[in-house]
Design goal:
By secondary structure, the protein is an alpha/beta fold. The protein contains four helices and five strands; from the N terminus they run E-E-H-E-H-E-H-E-H.
């Protein structure tokens, strides 16, 4: 499974390994929605081991961000490589998401 989750200091951290693409985006969506149903409200999605996100992957992140905010939660992104950071800047999604250079920075104050 390309996603693993662990609770760190009361925050659900989801690691994305490999790629976030049309073939696996629903797994990420399902994982976060399940955690929302369990009462989790604070999330960090860590892309330290991610090389590529396609448009459907971006779409699912936008959808999840909206759902998390609707219930008063927060979803932060961490460890985007240079290519992914450029992708978020070009699509203006860097204005929608709080993006951090490290998992530790993303967890601070959350």
């Amino acid at each position: 499974m390309p996603f693993s989750a662990e609770k760190v200091n009361g925050v659900m951290v989801i690691d994305v390994e490999g790629q976030l693409i049309v073939g696996n985006r629903q797994e990420l969506k399902q994982k976060i929605l399940e955690e929302l149903d369990r009462g989790e409200r604070r999330f960090v999605v860590d892309f330290a081991r991610t090389g590529y996100i396609d448009s459907s992957g971006l779409g699912v992140l936008v959808s999840l961000s909206k759902k998390v905010r609707e219930v008063g939660g927060e979803l932060r992104l961490a460890n985007l490589n240079d290519d992914l950071r450029t992708l978020f800047e070009l699509t203006k999604l860097d204005t929608l998401f709080q993006i951090y250079d490290s998992r530790e920075a993303a967890l601070q104050g959350l």
